[in-house]
Each structure stands twice: as C-alpha cells, then as structure tokens.
Amino acid sequence: MTDGSYICAFVLFSKRKISSTLNYKIILIMVNLTLEIVHHLLKERNQNLKSTQDKLCFPIVQRIHRKMLVGIRFKGIKVSGDLIIDGHHRYIASLLAGAKMEIVPWKSTSATLPVSWHNVSLVLEDWDTEAKIQMLNEEDALHNGLDIASFCALLK
Predict the structure, then answer these.
(1) Which domain range does residue 124 map to?
(2) pTM to 2 decimal places
C-alpha cells in the first residue's frame, strides 16, 4: 500500500458448494483513489444531496475514504432538506467507498445556498495540519471504540 487512499471493488467467486447453497469468498481489490476518480464522481454522477460549498480538499477525501474502506464509522452528515450543512468530505468519501452514512436533520440559515456538484472544485493543498490529522485520528478511534495504536494499525 502507498500513502494514498483507495477505491475498492469486490470480486466474488465460489469457494465450495454446501448443500443447495454456495459459500462465497470475497476478495478486496484496492485501487489508488485518484483526483480523476473523484472529479468524475462530482461531474458525471447525480448526487442525492446537494453541496453548499464550492471547494473540497482532495487529501481530506482520501483520508476519510481510506478509513471507510477499513470499516471506520463516522458521525452523521448534517443536512437541511437535501442540502449538506456539514459533512461534504464524508459524503463524497462514502459514495466512493460504498459506505452508509447517517443523515442528521439540521437547520440552515438564509445564507446557505446550493452549489452544483459540477461547480465544486477539488483543492490539492491539504487543509489539515499534521496536528489536526492526529487529533481527528484520535477522535475517530474514540468514536469507533479503538485505542489509537489499534486505529493506526488498521490504516497500515
């Protein structure tokens, strides 16, 4: 594995036949999550929820996506109607990882306006410092009932 995040595909094949049912083995294939993959999701697919921000940080999407692929759960996405109030990066990462996210009803202000996903740009500059990344990892570990060492081991 590299330091990047990954998109995954599942390949099912028959392991053996038991009675009238088949027993399947799942192989997880991980492919490096690229800017092009996220860009395609934003530009080519219709999303159920609407953005309220015009920029996303690609490194943040990568980190969240990678965590989701190893089973890390996140707090819900705050939504007013179909507008995302808080959780844009988690929402996009969850679509890429095939992870379910809880939707938390939230209030918006009159200043909250929808932004078409076609107009959302991906920023390559990391918005998080190393200290913030460490703090978020500690919060994610706690939210998932893990100590930080076990949490970090999952990401290796």
Answers:
(1) 35-154
(2) 0.81
d(CA 95, CA 116): 17
Each residue's pLDDT, cut to its tens digit, for the chain (156 residues) gives 334 444 444 433 434 444 444 444 444 445 589 999 999 999 888 899 999 999 999 999 999 999 999 999 999 999 999 999 999 999 999 999 999 999 999 999 999 999 999 999 999 999 999 999 999 999 999 999 999 999 999 998
The burial of 68, by beta-carbon neighbours within 10 Å (0-12 exposed, 13-18 middle, 19 or more buried), is given as buried
How many domains is the chain partitioned into structurally?
1
Structural domain contains residue 17: no
Q: How far is CA 34 from CA 39, 97, 118, 119, 124, in A?
A: 9, 13, 18, 19, 11
Contact in structure between 148 and 137 (CB atoms under 8 Å): yes
